[in-house]
Amino acid sequence: MFHTGAIDGSAVCPGDTEDAMKAHAVVFTNNNEVEYKEVQVPEPGDNDVLIELDYSWISIGTESSYLRGERIRGEVPYRLGDSRPFPIVAGYQKTGIVRAIGSAVRGFEVGERVFAAISKVSGMFDAFGGHVDPAVTPVNHIWKLPAGASPEDYCGLVLTQVGYNCGMRPSLAEGDEAVVIGDGLVGQWAAQTLLHRGAQVTVLGRHDGRLAYLPSPIRGVNTRTTGLSDALAGRRLAVVVDTVGDMGAFRAIQPYMKHNSHFVSAGFLGEEGTVDIQTLRGQEITLHTPSGWTAERMEATIAAISQGWLKTSPLITHRFRAEQAAEAWKVIQSGKASCLGVVLDWT
């Protein structure tokens, strides 16, 4: 059984009807085609929580690769012969208010504001998605927000956790030099985390507008106008974090890495992510390959945002109503350089 009421105030019991519940979602219906439309979601089960959304955060890099049909799930690229990955409910992160809880759920109450990762959907290429309201979400994909917290600060929590994870992975000593490849959100949060740990951080990007969001004293370098030899001259790098999947950039940076340094590879490489271990061995470079999230890292990221040193909402450049999702994606696709954090408002 399901406790308390649905969003309309009626009781929610999985066995009451054979029909799925109705919801609205951001759906990728084909390559580069986006619709805000009515979808079906399964009746909640005993281990599910029903959430009414307030905000969801678009993960531009990951969601763009789904929108282009380049991947079918997680780190799995689309290959010729695979089923085309459409239609699919985009995304994997949002905040909202608990409206009902399953009978086996403990630790949550109706009315609490929470973060939710992926939620259940019906009739799609994948049975899970992010931008869907109401959201029928397994309890292990939900975290409470701190009391009085702004939900916008946490609605991109999975992606924030990726950047946090990139910055926490390598061993680091106070004053070590670190380079982050990529000026997107993961690069921004990886750089913030490395700075918090005491590193001297340089971010290599291609967009002056994005680099301008880096907090002092992080150094931003536009590689369109400044060569790597000039940007890294005289540096002995302890850490290199690649957030965009650019092995060519890593190979160009590798000569500047010192002995016993660390390479963190977090960008989506499709089928091109080949590393010759022998080229790492001479410098004893440790390779880290973070992916996805863990409950422990999600909790640590919530704490970092709450403590104030991991900044999220200052990186929001665009806000759209949820029903304007197609317009949001037109802006992202036509002006990616100006987009950093893009949030959908479901209130």
List keywords for this structure.
347 residues; Rossmann fold; six-stranded parallel beta sheet; 23% helix; 31% strand; globular; disordered N terminus
How does this model look, in words?
Pfam families: ADH_N, ADH_zinc_N_2. By secondary structure, this protein is an alpha/beta fold. It has 2 domains: 189 residues, Quinone Oxidoreductase, Chain A, domain 1 (Alpha-Beta Complex); 130 residues, 3-Layer(aba) Sandwich (Rossmann fold). Helices cover 23% and strands 31% of the residues. The strands form 5 sheets. Strands 1, 4, 8, 9, 13, 14, 21 and 22 form an 8-stranded mixed β-sheet that branches. A hairpin with a 7-residue loop joins strand 10 and strand 11. The N terminus is likely disordered.
CATH class of the largest domain: Alpha Beta
> Considering DSSP H and I runs of 4 or more, what fraction of the residues is helical?
10-25%
Helical run tally = 10
Residue stretches low in confidence (pLDDT < 50, at least 5 long) are: 1-18
Global shape? globular
β-strand percent reads 25-35%
Which architecture name of the largest domain does CATH use?
A: Alpha-Beta Complex
Q: Which fold does the CATH topology of the largest domain refer to?
A: Quinone Oxidoreductase, Chain A, domain 1
- The radius of gyration computed from the alpha-carbon positions, rounded to a whole number of angstroms, is 21 Å
Overall number of domains: 2
Distance between the termini: 28 Å
Pfam families: ADH_N (PF08240), ADH_zinc_N_2 (PF13602)
Domain Alcohol dehydrogenase-like N-terminal: 76-146
Organism: Paenibacillus hodogayensis
Keywords: Oxidoreductase
